[in-house]
Amino acid sequence: RGILIGLCLFSILGFQTCGVILNKGEKMFDICCNDVWATPTEADNALLKEKGLYGQVVINEIAQFNHKKMLVQTASGAFLGAKLGSYWFEVFSGLFMLASHMAIWFYCPERHVDLCERLPDPDGHDGHYHRMGSA
Prior knowledge:
mainly alpha, elongated
């Protein structure tokens, strides 16, 4: 279980480190190529019309009307690595945490205790409701 906790903590540290790189990377570490977001322009729409992508033109015009930014270029290079690292470190930290919980359950002595309990009948043919119906 200690190994699982150590791996979980390592994954959490990696997730946080990648998060700092993603948020402060361009300014503090001079890392290139983050996502580029911009409001669509008429030139973008003209280019899309030339390519015959009329559905995307409509989406761009709606975004342009609402002054919403759209993704122009996705991350690449070190930023892409940081984004992927952030995702996978978060996934692995969750998996290691679940594995730690499973290890606790597997080795706990209470797992083998039989409490001699009885589940009620879902149709109500036992217990209080059955006695009320037959009276």
